[in-house]
Amino acid sequence: MEVNLQLKRLMNLSVPQLQEEFQRTSGEAARSNNRVYLIKRVLWRLQAAAAGGLSERARQRAAEIADESRLRARPPAAVHSEYAQAATPLKSSSTGLPLAGSIITRKYKGRRLEVKVLERGFELDGTVYGSAGALAKAVTGSNWNGPLFLGLKQRRAT
Fold first, then answer.
1. Is a pLDDT exceeding 90 seen at residue 70?
2. 3 state SS for the chain
3. pTM, two decimal places
4. What is the per-residue pLDDT across 121-133, written as a single tens digit (0 to 9) for each?
5. How many CA atoms lie within 13 Å of 45's alpha carbon, on the beta-carbon side?
Protein backbone atom coordinates (compact mmCIF):
# COMPACT_ATOMS: atom_id res chain seq x y z
CA MET A 1 0.00 0.00 0.00
CA GLU A 2 1.31 3.42 -0.94
CA VAL A 3 0.49 5.72 2.00
CA ASN A 4 0.91 8.97 0.08
CA LEU A 5 -1.48 7.86 -2.67
CA GLN A 6 -4.10 6.81 -0.12
CA LEU A 7 -3.67 10.09 1.74
CA LYS A 8 -4.18 12.11 -1.47
CA ARG A 9 -7.27 10.03 -2.26
CA LEU A 10 -8.72 10.59 1.21
CA MET A 11 -7.98 14.32 1.11
CA ASN A 12 -10.24 14.63 -1.96
CA LEU A 13 -13.22 13.00 -0.23
CA SER A 14 -16.04 14.92 1.44
CA VAL A 15 -16.94 14.31 5.08
CA PRO A 16 -19.91 12.03 4.21
CA GLN A 17 -17.64 10.05 1.87
CA LEU A 18 -15.02 9.79 4.62
CA GLN A 19 -17.70 8.53 7.00
CA GLU A 20 -18.64 5.85 4.46
CA GLU A 21 -14.96 4.92 4.09
CA PHE A 22 -14.66 4.72 7.87
CA GLN A 23 -17.72 2.42 7.96
CA ARG A 24 -16.18 0.24 5.27
CA THR A 25 -12.75 -0.04 6.87
CA SER A 26 -13.74 -0.33 10.53
CA GLY A 27 -17.12 -2.02 10.36
CA GLU A 28 -18.73 0.59 12.58
CA ALA A 29 -20.46 3.91 12.01
CA ALA A 30 -18.39 7.07 12.32
CA ARG A 31 -19.44 9.18 15.30
CA SER A 32 -17.38 12.15 14.17
CA ASN A 33 -17.79 14.83 11.54
CA ASN A 34 -14.20 15.99 11.99
CA ARG A 35 -12.53 15.65 8.60
CA VAL A 36 -8.93 15.42 9.87
CA TYR A 37 -9.87 12.81 12.47
CA LEU A 38 -11.69 10.68 9.89
CA ILE A 39 -8.75 10.84 7.46
CA LYS A 40 -6.33 9.76 10.18
CA ARG A 41 -8.52 6.90 11.37
CA VAL A 42 -9.26 5.58 7.86
CA LEU A 43 -5.61 5.80 6.86
CA TRP A 44 -4.60 3.99 10.06
CA ARG A 45 -7.13 1.22 9.33
CA LEU A 46 -5.86 0.86 5.76
CA GLN A 47 -2.25 0.64 6.98
CA ALA A 48 -3.18 -1.93 9.65
CA ALA A 49 -5.01 -4.04 7.08
CA ALA A 50 -2.05 -3.89 4.68
CA ALA A 51 0.50 -4.73 7.40
CA GLY A 52 -1.59 -7.45 9.00
CA GLY A 53 -2.64 -5.56 12.14
CA LEU A 54 -1.41 -6.38 15.62
CA SER A 55 0.55 -9.51 16.39
CA GLU A 56 -1.10 -12.20 18.48
CA ARG A 57 1.25 -11.40 21.36
CA ALA A 58 0.23 -7.72 21.24
CA ARG A 59 -3.46 -8.69 21.21
CA GLN A 60 -2.98 -10.91 24.26
CA ARG A 61 -1.14 -8.16 26.13
CA ALA A 62 -3.88 -5.66 25.31
CA ALA A 63 -6.46 -8.14 26.60
CA GLU A 64 -4.50 -8.50 29.84
CA ILE A 65 -4.34 -4.76 30.31
CA ALA A 66 -8.04 -4.35 29.60
CA ASP A 67 -9.10 -7.21 31.89
CA GLU A 68 -12.20 -5.75 33.49
CA SER A 69 -11.88 -7.87 36.61
CA ARG A 70 -8.98 -5.65 37.67
CA LEU A 71 -10.82 -2.39 37.06
CA ARG A 72 -12.94 -0.67 39.68
CA ALA A 73 -16.12 1.03 38.57
CA ARG A 74 -15.86 3.44 41.52
CA PRO A 75 -13.05 4.24 43.90
CA PRO A 76 -13.45 3.32 47.59
CA ALA A 77 -15.71 5.58 49.67
CA ALA A 78 -12.73 6.89 51.65
CA VAL A 79 -11.32 8.43 48.48
CA HIS A 80 -14.56 10.37 47.90
CA SER A 81 -14.56 11.89 51.39
CA GLU A 82 -10.86 12.88 51.17
CA TYR A 83 -11.41 14.45 47.76
CA ALA A 84 -14.45 16.38 48.95
CA GLN A 85 -12.41 17.89 51.80
CA ALA A 86 -9.40 18.74 49.63
CA ALA A 87 -11.33 20.07 46.64
CA THR A 88 -13.24 22.85 48.36
CA PRO A 89 -12.79 25.75 45.93
CA LEU A 90 -11.87 29.26 47.03
CA LYS A 91 -14.90 31.45 46.49
CA SER A 92 -14.56 35.04 45.44
CA SER A 93 -15.85 37.72 47.75
CA SER A 94 -18.88 39.90 47.07
CA THR A 95 -16.61 42.42 45.31
CA GLY A 96 -15.64 39.88 42.67
CA LEU A 97 -11.99 39.94 43.74
CA PRO A 98 -10.13 36.78 44.73
CA LEU A 99 -10.04 35.93 48.42
CA ALA A 100 -7.34 37.32 50.65
CA GLY A 101 -4.18 35.27 50.38
CA SER A 102 -4.59 34.60 46.67
CA ILE A 103 -1.67 35.35 44.37
CA ILE A 104 -2.29 37.03 41.02
CA THR A 105 0.48 36.61 38.46
CA ARG A 106 0.80 38.97 35.50
CA LYS A 107 3.49 40.01 33.06
CA TYR A 108 4.01 43.68 32.35
CA LYS A 109 6.74 44.89 29.97
CA GLY A 110 8.76 41.71 30.44
CA ARG A 111 8.48 41.83 34.23
CA ARG A 112 6.64 39.11 36.12
CA LEU A 113 4.40 40.61 38.79
CA GLU A 114 3.19 38.48 41.70
CA VAL A 115 0.49 40.38 43.53
CA LYS A 116 -0.86 39.09 46.84
CA VAL A 117 -4.49 39.87 47.60
CA LEU A 118 -4.91 41.21 51.15
CA GLU A 119 -8.02 41.72 53.27
CA ARG A 120 -7.81 45.41 52.40
CA GLY A 121 -5.63 46.02 49.40
CA PHE A 122 -2.85 44.40 47.43
CA GLU A 123 0.83 43.73 48.06
CA LEU A 124 3.56 43.84 45.43
CA ASP A 125 7.25 43.51 46.28
CA GLY A 126 6.62 44.30 49.96
CA THR A 127 4.62 47.46 49.26
CA VAL A 128 0.93 47.53 50.18
CA TYR A 129 -1.51 49.39 47.91
CA GLY A 130 -5.03 50.31 49.00
CA SER A 131 -6.60 49.40 45.68
CA ALA A 132 -5.89 47.60 42.44
CA GLY A 133 -5.95 50.95 40.66
CA ALA A 134 -3.27 52.37 42.96
CA LEU A 135 -1.10 49.32 42.33
CA ALA A 136 -1.60 49.63 38.57
CA LYS A 137 -0.67 53.33 38.66
CA ALA A 138 2.49 52.60 40.65
CA VAL A 139 3.57 49.93 38.16
CA THR A 140 2.66 51.70 34.91
CA GLY A 141 2.99 55.35 35.87
CA SER A 142 -0.47 56.13 34.46
CA ASN A 143 -4.07 55.69 35.48
CA TRP A 144 -5.39 52.19 34.81
CA ASN A 145 -8.48 50.27 35.73
CA GLY A 146 -7.00 48.07 38.47
CA PRO A 147 -9.03 44.88 37.94
CA LEU A 148 -8.45 45.17 34.18
CA PHE A 149 -4.70 45.60 34.72
CA LEU A 150 -4.59 42.52 36.98
CA GLY A 151 -6.61 40.47 34.50
CA LEU A 152 -9.58 40.10 36.84
CA LYS A 153 -11.99 41.42 34.22
CA GLN A 154 -12.01 41.67 30.44
CA ARG A 155 -12.04 44.81 28.32
CA ARG A 156 -15.44 45.51 26.80
CA ALA A 157 -15.84 44.95 23.07
CA THR A 158 -16.08 48.22 21.16
1. no
2. CCHHHHHHHHHCCCHHHHHHHHHHHHCCCCCCCCHHHHHHHHHHHHHHHHHCCCCHHHHHHHHHHCCHHHCCCCCCHHHHHHHHHHCCCCCCCCCCCCCCCCEEEEEECCEEEEEEEECCEEEECCEEECCHHHHHHHHHCCCCCHHHHCCCCCCCCC
3. 0.40
4. 899 999 999 988 9
5. 16
